Amino acid sequence: MDGASDRANDEGDRTDPNGKRGTRADGLERHRTDGVRNSLWSWPEAKSPLVVMRNYVVIVLARISPSLRLKNRLLSWIGVTVGTGVSWGLESTPDVFWPERITVGDDAIVGYDATLLCHEFLQDEYRLGDVVIEDRAMIGAGAVVLPGVTVGEEARVAANSLVTEDVPPRTTVAGVPAEVVSRVAAGEAGVAAAEAGDE
C-alpha cells in the first residue's frame, strides 16, 4: 500500500540539523490545556463528544465482529486508512479519539487485543501523532503502539510489547519498552516469501 509508505516518509526520520536522532515524542503535536485538572478533562474541547461516541460504538462493533471485511469497512468509515487484506484480531482497538490518524498497510495484521493509540493525555497537555503500520507488518496480541510510531514493512511486534519508537522494516521487536530482537535482510525476506508461496 503506497499510502502507508508515503505517510511514513512524510514524517521524516526525526533527525535534527546536526544529524542527531530524536525520539517519538519530538514528532508529536503538543496541545497545552488550561485549568487545574489534567488534560483528559479537556477532551470535549479537543474532539466533538458526538464524534467520539460514534467512534466508540463503531470500534466496539469492530472489536467483536468475527468478519474481517466488516471490521475493515467499519474502521474505514470512522477514518482509519485500511489497506487491502488487513486482518484485525478480535478485541483489537484503534484510537477512539483520532482514528483518522491511523494507516494500516496491505496484508498487515493487528493481533488480538492490540491497541493503536494516536493520543496521550498528560497533566498540562495532550499530544497527537499518526500511527502507521506498513504493508505485511504484524502487531502481536496485547501489544500497544504509541502515537507517532511507524511499524515498518514486514516488521513484527511481539505479543504484549509496548512500542515507543519506530520499528524498522523486517525487524522484530519485543518487550516493555519494545527493543529489537532480530532483523531480516531485504533479500532474505523475499526468499522466505517465495518459499512460503511454494508450499
Structural overview:
Helices cover 27% and strands 23% of the residues. The protein has 199 residues and is an alpha/beta fold. A hairpin with a 4-residue loop joins β16 and β17 (179-183).
Q: Could you give a short description of this structure?
A:
The chain has 199 residues and is of the alpha/beta class. It contains five helices and 17 strands. Helices cover 27% and strands 23% of the residues.
Number of alpha- plus pi-helical segments: 5
Q: Could you tell me the radius of gyration in angstroms?
A: 17 Å
Order of strands across the widest beta sheet? 3-6-11-14-16-17
Unreliable segments (pLDDT under 50, ≥5 consecutive)? 3-12
Q: What percent of residues are in strands?
A: 15-25%
Largest sheet: 6 strands, mixed
Give the overall pLDDT as a whole number.
Answer: 88
